[in-house]
Design a protein that fits this description.
heterodimer; A: 596 residues; mainly alpha; two-stranded antiparallel ribbon; 24 helices; 4 strands; 64% helix; 2% strand; B: 311 residues; alpha/beta; six-stranded mixed β-sheet; 13 helices; 10 strands; 45% helix
Chain lengths: 596, 311
């Protein structure tokens, strides 16, 4: 902290609120501590509000979230004060992180009290403890807003209005290089980070009433930017870039552990469906993110895979009546999707941009309607028409029936946990394929085609062939995911595979997941898919206005973070002039040549 | 220069062997408009040939015919004796690389990645190789990167390998485009207005770069509007006017040809201006030229000496 204040401009740059730094700090401290203590009070009279907030000395439910927020605020405040042992928390900007956390805590607390008032009908239902909590959180936020900003203000362009002032005060300097630790410490840090991530994810999935989920989302929405401002994500990024393989392994170990943390198979269902959705989104990312082909009918490939698996896996109503082992069903599904992808791609990929999008949209619908009509009356009896193919048998691998409950190491793994693990293997394969294809001659050619097709051709790239390759690869990956999906859901019907539908995955949501998460990245579609699945699954009211809210979310995203939640290096540079690479240095080579 | 150079020696004539590029009777019509009419053009091994002409003369159309972007309506273009295929990626594979009039870099790829894309035709690691990551893949990637870095050193961009192409200053973007074209190991490099929008210093640097490319045995065909640049650079210059080749010859021949002057400035019309008026204009032009010369006095003089030395 001391070092940062020394380097700032001579004029102290105030926060959003004109408070003397000392008082602001005092308010923030007092407020945070007060909020912390208030969670031990009773916030409401009755136990009707879920989570039981009536007990003194024992915070529960939403109070825990407020407690966490207040604790983190305190920790970052102390770290900003240079408290020994906590300084590692804020290598970037301490004050902007505190500001965000204080606002997040205020958000959660305010939401909780608001929810109590709304749910139970009236102000009367809030205990004094609740009012104290809100007041304290408010004081803390006011103090935090009064803290000096981490980045000195541009003297020539002072912020014109309070909003700009606030935006400026939330900026933070990039963290410095992390000093080298022994390898095992760094690996331990990465593992801890992923363990925390897993904990957050399972907490989100396991929230058993919507209020808790909303509170959780509010806190997380402030927590992650705060960690970013504090420089922790930046330094973690340095570490993960250094230990690439460790990171990938840690991520998959974290995912692998997930079903073991679930006592309730209903929540494992959510996990499995998220994985299916995310894997298909990642396949779409090859087509959209790398090769730049806007495909609006992608879910058809998932459908081809699922239908193929349903037909060859020995479902009683299957028109083929063969029973392949699972691995053979996966291969058949993948090959069928591949053929379908090439068949659709060959004529359509001669088009570019919007035209391609419309044609793929059409082909996606053709698949659904075609499947609907192959019912024996409108066409040959293959797919059983709108009734679909029900009763698809469970997958059995080496005598291990995935439909039954198994006890492994004392953990009970239900049906969906089993399928989660199976799907995880799928996801690992898809992630590996994506990463390897991306970082190769083929991946570069895809990106080149996306950037400028004419120039790419002039560089000797056979654009049509490579686009077809991307399309076929994307289709195959979706087909693989489809074969698992058919087994997970017992039934395949044409209605599952349309452009927009209530439940993801469907073409529109897949595309939304890729764009929301970040095009061209691995983690982007995974996170995008998790959010898009989890939010409507947890919140009834979101389901009703799903499309409206997603539209709104996408508009806001395009306005404020066009590169998506996770930006790949390229997009980051594309949308935000970092200044770091822009400065044209005086080119020495040129001057040398003139002298000759 | 290129690997394919040796195995396809033409059987046609002895003369064709020396010519890297041989365009014969190229005509390009767009509906009723004839953009290029019956143009013959040759580029010999290690030669720098200039292509000039007023705006709309059909220079870029001719370029596009030579690079497979257009298929000529009539006539053929052959490279080292073989008639060019009509797909631009196959033309590049055959050994002709080009740059574009309006820079067409892969703006959101890094400088190094841009050059690596240029290596596409000279490597053949497919998807399977990329997925399996065998030793062959790693070797090919390492070779490609080494070769790309060589080219970046050659063009003076090595220090900026990890910058996005879009963030480079204008002159360096032009250089990068040349580096990217060279990465495909061409026998002939087509430059479409390589100095457009450049300041005199950058123009000189480009000239040095083109000479250096020629010294590697690569023939160069340049479209340019900067006459000083083109006459100082080229061994031979062809003038294209309204789709037809007007003159072809050494810079001196072309410079002194009245028809070229007429094509650029127009023929004197009926009422030829009085001598006084002509003198007045000449005086004004001289004054302006002197002014300009005074401004870039030092740079101007080096250009002159360079031109002498290179010619």
């Amino acid at each position: 902290m001391t070092t940062t204040t020394k380097t700032t401009a001579p004029a102290p740059t105030g926060g959003t609120l004109p408070l003397p730094p000392g008082i602001a700090r005092l308010l923030a401290f007092g407020g945070a501590a007060g909020t912390l203590l208030s969670t031990f009070l009773s916030w409401t009279y009755t136990k009707e509000f879920p989570g039981n907030l009536t007990v003194y000395g024992y915070p529960g439910g939403l109070q825990l979230l407020t407690l966490t927020g207040a604790l983190l605020t305190l920790a970052f405040l102390l770290s900003g004060q240079g408290l020994r042992g906590l300084r590692w928390l804020t290598p970037g900007g301490p004050n902007s992180a505190v500001r965000l956390l204080a606002l997040g805590t205020l958000g959660v607390t305010g939401y909780t009290v608001g929810a109590i008032i709304k749910n139970l009908g009236g102000l009367i239902n809030v205990d004094p403890g609740g009012y104290i909590a809100v007041t304290m959180a408010l004081i803390c936020a006011v103090g935090a807003l009064g803290l000096p900003s981490d980045v000195p203000q541009d003297a020539d362009h002072p912020p014109a209005n309070p909003w700009e002032q606030l935006v400026h005060s939330l900026k933070a300097p990039a963290p410095g290089r992390l000093k080298d630790h022994p390898g095992w410490v760094e690996i331990l840090i990465i593992s801890t980070a992923f363990a925390l991530g897993l904990y957050l994810f399972t907490f989100g999935i396991d929230t058993d009433y919507p209020e808790l989920f909303v509170g959780f989302m509010v806190l997380v929405a402030f927590l992650f930017p705060a960690l970013g401002r504090a420089g922790l994500t930046g330094q973690l990024g340095q570490l993960t870039a250094k230990h690439r393989n460790v990171t990938v392994t840690a991520a998959f170990v974290a995912a692998f552990v997930f079903p073991f943390t679930q006592s309730n198979d209903a929540y494992a269902t959510i996990g499995t469906n998220i994985l299916i959705f995310a894997t298909v989104a990642l396949g779409l990312n090859v087509v959209v993110g790398l090769a730049g082909l806007l495909d609006l009918g992608y879910v058809a490939f998932l459908g081809v895979g699922a239908y193929t698996a349903a037909l060859v896996s020995g479902a009683p109503t299957s028109s083929i009546g063969v029973t392949f082992p699972f691995w053979a069903a996966v291969l058949t599904g993948a090959v069928a999707s591949l053929i379908f992808g090439v068949l659709i791609g060959a004529p359509t990929l001669r088009l570019r941009g919007d035209y391609l999008a419309i044609v793929t949209l059409g082909f996606g619908e053709i698949f659904r309607i075609g499947v609907q009509n192959l019912d024996g009356t409108s066409g040959p009896d293959v797919t059983n028409g709108p009734n679909g193919i029900p009763n698809i048998p469970e997958v059995e691998i080496l005598g291990f029936n995935l439909g039954e409950e198994h006890t492994i190491l004392g953990f009970e793994l239900g049906r969906f946990s089993n399928y989660f693990l199976l799907m995880l293997v799928c996801t690992i394969i898809v992630v590996t394929i994506f990463r390897r294809a991306d970082q190769s001659r083929i991946g570069r050619a895809w990106v080149a085609i996306r950037e400028d097709e004419t120039a790419a051709r002039a560089m000797g790239i056979n654009a049509f062939r490579l686009k077809l390759l991307a399309f076929a690869l994307g289709a195959t990956l979706a087909g693989v995911a489809g074969t698992v999906q058919a087994h997970v859901q017992y039934t395949v019907t044409p209605e599952q595979y349309q452009f927009v539908e209530a439940v993801p995955p469907n073409s529109a949501f897949l595309l939304a997941a890729v764009i929301l998460g970040g095009m061209g990245t691995v983690s982007g579609p995974l996170i995008g898919a998790a959010l898009l699945y989890l939010i409507p699954a947890k919140l009834q009211f979101v389901q009703e206005y799903q499309l409206l809210l997603f539209g709104l979310a996408l508009v806001l995203l395009m306005r404020f973070r066009p590169e998506g939640l996770i930006a790949d290096r390229r997009k980051q540079l594309e949308f935000h002039d970092t200044g770091q690479l822009d400065v044209p240095k005086e080119d020495t080579g040129l001057n040398d040549k003139v002298g000759v | 220069m290129t690997p394919m150079a040796s195995d396809t020696i033409p059987a046609k004539g002895t003369e064709a062997a020396a010519d890297v590029l041989d365009a014969r009777g190229v005509t390009m019509r767009f509906g009723g408009l004839t953009a290029v009419r019956d143009v013959d053009l040759t580029v010999a091994q290690g030669e720098i040939v200039g292509l000039i002409g007023p705006n709309g003369a059909g220079k870029t159309t001719l370029f596009n015919c030579m690079t497979g972007l257009y298929t000529p309506t009539e006539g053929t273009v052959s490279y080292k004796g073989t008639v060019l295929p009509n797909r631009s990626h196959e033309v590049t594979k055959a050994g002709i690389a080009r740059t574009f009039q309006n820079i067409r870099l892969f703006a959101n790829m890094t400088v190094l990645e841009n050059v690596l894309v240029g290596r596409h035709t000279r490597t053949r690691e497919g998807l399977w190789s990329a997925l399996l990551r065998g030793p062959g893949f790693k070797r090919a990637e390492a070779t490609s990167e080494a070769r790309a870095m060589e080219l970046l050193e050659f063009t003076g961009l090595a220090a900026k390998r990890d910058h996005l192409a879009r963030n480079l200053p204008y002159g360096e973007q032009r250089k990068l485009e040349i580096a990217r074209a060279l990465a495909s190991q061409p026998g002939l490099l087509l430059l479409d207005e390589p100095t457009a929008g450049m300041n005199p210093q950058e123009t000189r640097a480009t000239r040095e770069l083109v000479f250096a490319v020629r010294d590697q045995g690569i023939s160069v065909l340049v479209i340019e509007h900067d006459m000083r640049f083109i006459f100082g650079l080229c061994d031979r210059v062809a003038v294209l006017v309204q789709g037809e080749k007007l003159v072809e010859g050494t810079p001196d021949v072309v410079q002194s040809d009245d028809r070229v002057v007429a094509a650029y400035l127009g023929t004197p019309f009926e009422g030829v201006p009085e001598d006084e008026a002509v003198d007045e204009v000449a005086a004004a032009e001289n004054a302006a030229a002197e002014n300009a010369a005074a401004k870039t006095a030092r740079s101007g003089s080096t250009t002159e000496t360079n031109k002498e030395g290179d010619a």
